[in-house]
Design a protein that fits this description.
By secondary structure, this protein is an alpha+beta fold. It is built from four helices and eleven strands. About 25% of the residues lie in helices and about 40% in strands. Strands 1-2-3-6-5-4 form a six-stranded antiparallel barrel. The chain has a three-stranded antiparallel sheet with strand order 10-9-11. Strands 7-8 form a two-stranded antiparallel ribbon.
């Protein structure tokens, strides 16, 4: 995937390709924590837990594979997406950001990060095809803290998913490292739905070992 330069014109920005993370990508948004949903050289879509006013200025920072991406941004839009489903029961918000005054090497850094992720995906796919053990993704950490994805089953097939620092296993679901991809989590959810109490306990026990 090729990432366009951050100083692209407005017309170019509308066509800039976006990269969607297949795992939880924690970041810092101003002084608060956030999760990046997708990103391009001109902006990003993030989930966070403090309200942001439209038009306000924030700074987005995240790390991956030893690289640091940092860019100032303007909030284009922000809306509430969940009440009480944040890591500590906060309200969740989703905002669209437009980068401004980014560092000269920010676009190059983003391209390197995306390429690294794509290469790792290809390696895991090739390992799976060859029947080999897939290499684990690097631990997802920010500020020295490791993050997890907590999945709780509501009803027969509705899942409430949120990221957390707490590896504790819930009684109505499971908690896994945030480094697991969406597809891997979906497989666990499907298996959990079909299992009885003993099977579900086994999933939680296995997830505890992974965490």
């Amino acid at each position: 995937m090729t990432i366009q330069t951050i100083d692209a014109s407005p017309s170019e920005r509308r066509g800039a390709p976006r990269f969607r993370f297949s795992f939880v990508m924690p970041s810092m948004l101003g002084r608060g924590e956030a999760v990046i949903l997708d990103i391009s050289a001109e902006g990003a879509r993030v989930m966070h837990f403090t309200s942001l006013a439209r038009g306000s200025q924030v700074r987005l920072v995240f790390f991956y594979a030893g690289r640091r991406f940092a860019a100032n941004a303007r909030v284009l839009a922000s809306r509430v997406v969940g009440l009480g489903n944040g890591p500590d029961g906060e309200t969740s918000y989703q905002s669209r950001l437009q980068f401004s005054d980014a560092a000269i090497d920010a676009a190059a850094t983003l391209t390197q990060i995306v390429q690294h992720i794509e290469i790792e995906r290809m390696r895991r796919w090739e390992s799976n095809v060859a029947g080999e053990e897939s290499p684990m993704q690097e631990d997802v950490v920010v500020g020295g803290a490791q993050y997890f994805m907590r999945c709780r089953l509501r009803g027969r097939a509705h899942w409430n998913k949120c990221w957390t620092r707490d590896p504790k296993q819930p009684e109505d679901g499971f908690t896994v490292p945030a480094k697991l991809g969406d597809g891997e989590v979906a497989i666990l959810c499907e298996a959990y739905e079909k299992m009885d109490g003993d099977g579900r306990a086994l999933i939680r026990a296995t997830a505890s070992e992974a965490a």
